[in-house]
Hints:
The chain has 8 helices and 9 strands.
Amino acid sequence: MLKRLISEDRLERGIWTSASDFGKCWIVFVGLPCFLCWSWVIGLLFVAGINLHNVIAHQSNLVLEVKCGGQSHGIPKDGLHHLTGCKFKQTVVNNVVSIHVGSFKWGPGAPCGTIAEKMDKGELLQGSPLSFIGNVSDGVMKAWRKDNAVICGFMEGDVSAGVMMQDRNTEGITTTCIGMLFVLFLLSWASCCLFFPDRNSDELTPDANRRACMITLVAAGMSCFGSVLSYMYGSTGLFIGGVIILLVLCAGCSDSFTESMRQMFEKREYDIEDPEDPDEERPLLVDNSSPSYGEARPLPTTGQPLPPAGVEQQQEPEGDSGESGYKQQGGSTEFLAAICLGIFAGLAGGILLSVVLSIALG
């Protein structure tokens, strides 16, 4: 099935041998490195979005409320802190700009959104009430980091911690989706460079762009699948994901497996009865090409005896045509494809069951 994404004629000749000299250089120095790089990046982006969502969901009930005029020495250093309705104040002493929100100092340059950028540029009005979520330990407002997730943000007015956490979650999902769309575009371009380096002059693949998009979706799905297993189960999940992806590639690129799947779907369509009225008996159609019982049969030529009365001539059965019959599949390749498919189904089912149990019990 996967081999149908690429022109079969080019596969018979070989992707490498069918490419021109310029196409071979394009495959080695551009197509292959870019394809592997962007396939890896899209999996990282997908896992980063999942990780941020999980961290926010876990920390939503653990946010520590801090008073605007509170002391910094009693605040936990590793906790997630929230300030509500604190006044913004900016002072300049000896050409040194000092920014405070409540009694806490703001360190310019932290990735905390558009309001933080306005504070750095001096575009925010003095005395504006602000709410902050992040880390305010040691009296300095900064980003809170845990498990490769970053939470830091300002909002104008008196905003609760739950609203700010939800806003950060929405921002993270939006950023992840935009990044994945951009990487998908780059990955489709890399797929064209790798599998169709001479697509502008290759007459055998006029729909190279469409096939490259399908290859891109398959590669992105495999990358996200392997990255999620690695995120959930560490090195063991990465190994299991690699084995499953390898089995899928072996089964999908097998000619015998592809042919058996095609014949299975064709036979299923052939065996389906008429959905309009399955119980209705179909009338027998009369074949006008064959002589009826009432017509006289032609006499045999001279030298051939006449058949006895009441005895019909027996005709030899015609052989089954290739269109109506189905070839029986058998052999080592079919057996290997069946083994790969069975292992893949078992591993995927076990992983799905373990995830469901962990969610239900945890």
